[in-house]
Structure formats: C-alpha cells, structure tokens
Amino acid sequence: MAGVDGLIVGAGVIAIAFAWYLFTLVAAVQVNKTELTESSKINSCMNEKQTDSMEVIYEAIREGADAFLMAEYKICLIFVVCFAAVIFFLIGLGQDFEAAILTTIAFVTGAFTSMFSGWIGMKVAVFANARTTIEAAAGTNEEEKYMGAFNMAFRAGGVMGFSLCGLGLLVLWFLLQIYSGYLDLTDLSEYEVMMDCISGYGLGGSTIAMFGRVGGGIYTKAADVGADLVGKTELDIPEDDPRNAATIADNVGDNVGDVAGMSSDLFGSFAEATCAALVISASSSDFVTEGGWSALMFPLCISASGILVCLVSSFLAMNAVKSQPQVEKTLKGQLIVTTVLMVPVGAILAMSLLPAEFTLHGVAQASFTATPMKVVVCLSSGVIGGLVIGLITEYYTSFSYSPVVEVANSCKKGGAATNIIYGLALGYKSAIIPIMVLAVIIFLSFSLCDTYGVAVAALGMLSTLATCLSIDIYGPVCDNAGGIAEMTLPELPENVRECTDALDAAGNTTAAIGKGFAIGSAALVSLALYGALVVRLEITTGVNVLEPMTFSFLLIGAMLPYWFSAMTMKSVGEAAGAMVEEVRAQVKDETIVTAGSDRLTGLGKETMKPGETVKAGVGILQGLVKPDYKQCIDISTKASLKEMVPPSALVIMAPLLAGTFFGVYAVFGILTGGLVSGVQLAISMSNTGGAWDNAKKYIEGGHSPDPDLQGKGTEYHKAAVVGDTVGDPLKDTSGPALNILMKLMAILSLVFADYFQSINEGRGIFNIAVAGASVAAQAASP
C-alpha cells in the first residue's frame, strides 16, 4: 500500500475507532430501567417515578425519530432506484454504457453512504439526549453539572463527526481502488474517465442531503412553530411543557432535521469538493504523469489529515467546561485550534505530495502551471476563511455581542414588529463580511491555481469537518436534554433546566456557526464543481455572462433560491397551521376521562378518586391527562414527506431541463445565478433566525440589565417568541437547504456534462446558436 493510501486508510480507521471509543463513554450512562445497576448515575439524582417518566419520554422521541427517518428513507430508496436508471440511460446516450454503469454505481454508493451518515447522526443524538439530562441532574454542584452535561453532548457530537468523516473517506477510497483496478490506467485518458464516473458519488450524497434537509427541516419547524404559537403565546406554558401535545414532535424534529439533515449535507460537501478536485486534476495527463497517484490523491489526504488534527484538538474540550461562560469559549477554541494546526499540516502535505511544478487545465486558459506553494495559499485561505466566517456568524447570533442584544431591546420599542425589523436588518448586514471573505478566497485561489485552487480552498474549509460536526450536533443534543428535563415528572430541580438551557443557548450559536460554515463551504464547492464542468467541456476561454443565453438563464438561476425558499417556507406554514389546530383541539377536547383510565398521567392516577371524571382538555392543562403526542408526530411526518418532493424536484429538474433544451450555456447561467443569489440569501436567513432565537433566550435567561426584559410571560417576551417563530423556518429549513441547492445543481450538471454536449454539440434540443460557435467548436479553437 502506497504512503498516501496508508494515510487515507489509517485516518479513516482511526476516525471510526475514535468514534466508537466516544460512543462507549456516552453509553456508560444508563437510561433504560432494565440496564440500571446500584451504581447508575440516575439513581443518585432521580426517584423511581422520575426515572420511569424520563424513560417514557426518551423512548417516545426515539420511536418518533426512527419512524420518520424510515419513512423518509423509503421515499429516498425509490428515488435512488429511479434516478439511477435516469443516470444510466442519459450518460449511456451521451458517453458510453461502461461509463454509465460506473457512474451509476458511484451514485448509488454515495446515496447509501449519505443515508447511513444521517442515520448514525440521528441515532447517536437520540441516544445521548436523556444521558445529557442525567449528567446535568447528577452533578452535586455547578461545576460537576456543566462538566458532565457538556462532555456528554460534545462526545455525542464527536461520534457523529468522526464516524461520518472516516466513513465518507474510506468509502470513496475503496471506490477509487475498485475503479482503478477495473480500468486500464496505462492509458492516461482512463484517469479522466475514472474521475468523471466517481463524481456520481458526490451526486448521490447531495440528492439524499436535499431530501434530508428539506424533509427534516419541514418536520422540525412545523412542530416547533406549532408548539411555540399555542404553548407560549396562547396557553402561557413553558417551552417543552408536557401539557403541550407538540413537544415530543418538536424534540423528534431536532434529531431528524438539525442532526440527520446536517450530517447528510456536510457529507455531500466533502464528497463533491473531493470529486471536483479529482476531475480537474485528472483532466491533465501532464499532471498524472508528473505527480502520479500521490498527487491525484492529494484531495483525500487533506481530509485524512484534517481528521487527525480534529482528533488531537478534541481532547482540549474534554473536562474544560465548568461554568456557563466557559461553554462558548471552549467551543470557539475548538475551531481556532483546528484552524491553527491545519494550516502547517496542509503545507507539509502539499510540499510532500505535489511535484515542484505541474500543469493543469483551466477555465480562463487552456493550461496553467502551478506549484505546491500556490496550492498552500489556496488551502490556507479556505481553512482561515472558514474560521472567519464562523466567528462573524457567532458575532451576529450570540447574545454575548451587541447585534443580538439590540434585537432583544427592540422588543420594548414596538413589540414583535420592531423585533422582526431589527432581525431582518441584522441578517442582511451579517452577509457583508462572509461574502467579502468568500470573494477574497475565490480571487486568490482562482488567480493562483484556477479552478483547482477553488476546489482545494473548499477542501481546506472542509478539512476541520469532524470538529465542526461535533460542535453542530452538540446543540440539538442539549436542546433535547432541556426538553426531557422539562417534561420529566415529578419535576426535576430548577437548576437542571438552567444548566441545559445555558448549554442549549451556546448550542444555538454553534449551530449558527455550523450553518455559516456549511453555506460558505457550499459556495466554494459549487464554484469548484462549476469550474470542473467547464474544464470537462474543454472550454478554455472562460464563460461570458453577457452572452444572451447565459445572462437570460443567470436571471432565472438567481430567482431559483427565492422560488425554492417560498416553497419550503409555505410548507412549514401549512404544517405548523395543522399542528396549531391539533394542539388547540386537544386542550378544548370535552371527552370525559374517568379515574383509572390509561389516558391519565402519574399525577392524575394519584389524585383522582374512583368514579371521578375530568374533561380531557381541562385535564391536559391541569397535568392530569396525557396529550396525544402521536397525533402531532403523525402531522409533522405526513406533511414533511409530502412537501419535501416539489422543492427537491425543482432543484434537480432546473439544470437538467436547461441543458437538455437550451444547452450548456443555459446551464452556465443557471449555476452562476443560483450561486450568487443563493449564498447571500442563505447567510441572511440563517443568521436572522439564529439572532431571533438567541434574543428570546437573552430575555428568558434574565441576561438583560433592564428588569422589563427579564423572564418569561411578559409582553416583551411574547414579542421575542414571535420573532423566534418567524425565524424558525428561515434558520432551520429554507436557509440551510439553499446550500444544497447550489451544490446539487452544480454536481448534477457535471455528471451529465457529456449528455448535454451530445445534444447538438451542446446547444440543446432547440439548437440555439450561441455566440456563433458550438461547445465543440470553441474547444477546438486556438
């Protein structure tokens, strides 16, 4: 096994082994009654009734998450089979059926790896939520509570982060090994064929990510918005109160949307960025000859070394949190340390694996000469740029800084209206610096190494993926832990919920950082794939956006993120409306419930005397009767599965139809417009929603010096809740899904490049002349 292969396989195996080690630490805390021993932590902090209550809640969340994910994956499985047939047929027409078979296999492999990644993320998050609550309850003082609960949630995130990175890397490496053994690589052109086929791996990951992000996002926000609107603003009951029928669905949603969706999303980014770099590097036989297999595998080695860097830095977070102020500092420190370590590691890799000078094909020129030092600059700009975007996102979404405090204070000026105005302004403003950072990265990378530099910069930003995923998954685990603490009856001590709320507030900020990171990397990945498409079509004079066909479709591409967002937000609104009606109906239910009924809660069974009756709705509000949680879970599940198809179809069909009927220049316009519009809309949406969420928590936590802006139940708090509710679909459904829109359209266009070019030499079925030359003619011109 060559040195680079040893690094790739070794890093992948170490990542999975470390994830298993972290899982054993998480599993050491028992929840299920059948597993408990005398020394179990839960026995020291909860009585038997509380233990029984927690187990029921834990199982309900687990069953709900399992049911949704299995239903979603059944639809995904049908899609994978049908779309695999489409890939086989169209690529067979445009290229040959051998390439069609290899691309289809890569697509199916990527799709199933993405599904498995999402499943792992969801399972470990559900597994850790109640255990985090137990750690928060078992501590005898503040230091033990924060340390135990933080470690539990962060380790759960680590299980997801390292298992996904290790799995994605190993599967891609094995696929490359199989293809390299099958194809005759003594013919250097076969390298290009191999990498073109491998791009199907990224397409498979991205299509599943689209379903996961959209479906999971609609599920979680329908439940969240419905629970907040009725519970907080109408019934005046706390968040996650067991009397609210939507609370279990809300907690299920945290796992299927924020965890499973994010996992598939970032897996797709890794796969697509790697595929883009592989396609560009393999297009030059000079590069293959000069650098060999080691240079070709440089993109995978970046990810492999990133795993090892993240593993080392993760130990710095263990046992580091002993109070609330240390939470955000520790999580931010993880990002900084991994960035600082990754820059020199990336430099060593480039100097060791790449030839002193090498030639690659470009977009703006037929070929260009690059050096390892130029690649180091590209890689470092991506690594550092990702950190800067993360820190800027934190500044605009954490209540430790003035922007969110201003949003919270605005609730006193004009209620919900001014809160929404301030929040929207914050979101628009928050896009300025990240966009400038991306512009600098793109300019540097493209100037130094053309599209290969952009792909390397994207991989640099994604090199700290294991840490970013660990931090991102931490948030939903803490959110679920707080919900379980609130719903457990008899009530747990107030300081347990205070601990989980403090961890969750930091989790909201880190989730926003994760979304910013995902969106920034998606922009670079999309551009890298776009560049790989142009290189694949052998266009060496660049893309002229003022060409009528390209500019016309640029406007259409810029419109797509708005159309897509309108569809997803309306879906959340309709599902949330159904949820609100269900919760209202349950608290107004006049069905008579008698003593001894299975519908009674523990309190109801204890206090109601034989023969005594209570109306179901009244009993729910008094804590005597159980709400029908399952009905709310069913509403979210059915709505999300129904509504996730049209937005996903829009993203998949747009480039396919444009390329088929109008040609590749129309596709160039679609990709340009979608990228430029989508990245800015995604950043502003995600940060607006994150700011509204933390402005609400700023008021609820009593962090404001103004007594009027402290605590729950006031008019100002209700105004903050309205803002948070409006922001929910922005930050957790539409915003995060836009980065998949950018990537999916680009990777799909790359995979079907030969098919598009086969139709009237790239002019599409309508055969519209473009600037007086076909793609083939332009490629052949000097």
Would you kindly provide a written description of the structure presented here, covering whatever features stand out?
It contains 25 helices and 4 strands. It is 79% helix and 2% strand. The C terminus is likely disordered. The protein starts with a helix and ends with a helix. The chain is an all-alpha fold and 782 residues long. The strands form 2 sheets. It has a two-stranded antiparallel sheet with strand order 1-2.
Mean pLDDT across all amino acids: 90
Provide the β-strand percentage band: under 5%
Number of helices: 25
Question: Could you give the order of strands across the largest sheet?
Answer: 1-2
Task: Please provide the ordered H/E string of secondary-structure elements.
Answer: HHHHHHHHHHEEHHHHHHHEHEHHHHHHH
Total E-strand runs: 4
Helical content class:
over 70%
Please identify the structural class as seen in this structure: mainly alpha
**Poorly predicted segments:** 772-782
Radius of gyration (CA) equals 26 Å
Q: How far apart are the first and last residues' alpha carbons, in Å? A: 42 Å
Shape from CA axes?
A: globular
Task: Give a quick account of the main beta sheet: strands, pairing sense, barrel closure.
Answer: 2 strands, antiparallel
Q: Tags for this entry?
A:
782 residues, mainly alpha, two-stranded antiparallel sheet, 25 helices, globular
Sequence-ordered SSE layout with sheet pairings:
Elements (H helix, E strand, L loop, with lengths): L2 H25 L14 H4 L2 H47 L2 H42 L3 H41 L6 H43 L15 H36 L2 H12 L1 H17 L10 H29 L4 E3 L7 E3 L1 H26 L4 H13 L1 H15 L1 H31 L2 H23 L6 H43 L11 H40 L4 E3 L7 H6 L5 E3 H6 L7 H15 L1 H17 L2 H37 L14 H37 L1 H6 L16 H6 L2
Antiparallel strand pairs: 1-2, 3-4
